[in-house]
């Protein structure tokens, strides 16, 4: 249904599941386990797994904090997109990678819900992609000391509004890990 022509394929987009990005994240172990199960499922079904890795002052490239969590292993053949902004498309190779794979539909997992996940979902949708958020495979840190709601409420709110996101010629929505269908 994507508005992108000749892009019938789906990809699993794993955003910023890095040591420093999820060290203090809400329900970290469950979320990482859900991401791992989706990576395994995508591989079994020959669905592309595209990895996104953020770097900035807190996640210095090459540092332990910058590395993907040890529970997940990226295969050499799986694309890795490095980014410096919240939206995984902004000033990166992501669009080129997805175009080359014929991808018009993204299944999105990772961190941080209220930053890079939100930005990437909106960035994908605005660029014509169908974008599905896996409701129990994204997480965020506790930002309450800066006025944000508790992380479980941030996650619930993101799931709520993404469930009802609409635009002409594109689909959005949420799905639980156990119900992910890469075929459509």
Describe this structure in words.
With 184 residues, this protein is of the alpha/beta class. The chain is 30% helix and 22% strand. The chain contains 5 helices and 6 strands. It has helices at residues 19-22, 28-44, 94-100, 113-126, 151-163, and strands at 9-15, 49-54, 80-83, 103-111, 130-139, 172-175. A 6-stranded parallel sheet has the order 3-2-1-4-5-6. The mean pLDDT is 97.
- Beta-strand level of the residues, as a percent range? 15-25%
Q: What spatial form do the alpha-carbon principal axes imply?
A: globular
Instruction: State mean pLDDT (0 to 100 scale).
Output: 97
Number of helices: 5
Summarize the structure.
The chain is built from five helices and six strands. It has 184 residues and is an alpha/beta fold.
List keywords for this structure.
184 residues; alpha/beta; single chain; 6-stranded parallel β-sheet
């Amino acid at each position: 249904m994507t508005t992108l022509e000749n892009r019938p394929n789906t990809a699993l987009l794993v955003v910023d599941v890095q040591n420093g990005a999820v060290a203090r994240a809400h329900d970290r172990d469950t979320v990482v386990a859900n991401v791992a199960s989706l990576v395994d499922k995508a591989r079994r079904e020959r669905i592309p797994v595209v990895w996104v890795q953020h770097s900035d002052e807190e996640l210095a490239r090459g540092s332990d904090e910058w590395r993907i969590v040890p529970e997940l292993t990226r295969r050499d053949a799986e694309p890795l997109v490095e980014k410096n902004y919240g939206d995984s498309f902004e000033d990166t190779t992501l669009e080129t990678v997805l175009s080359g794979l014929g991808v018009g539909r993204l299944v999105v997992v990772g961190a941080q819900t209220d930053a890079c996940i939100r930005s990437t979902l909106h960035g994908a949708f605005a660029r014509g992609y169908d974008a599905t958020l896996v409701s129990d495979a994204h997480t965020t840190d506790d930002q309450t000391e800066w006025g944000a709601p508790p992380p479980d409420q941030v996650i619930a709110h993101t799931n709520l509004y993404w469930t009802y996101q609409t635009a002409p010629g594109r689909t959005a929505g949420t799905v639980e890990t156990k119900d992910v269908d890469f075929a459509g």
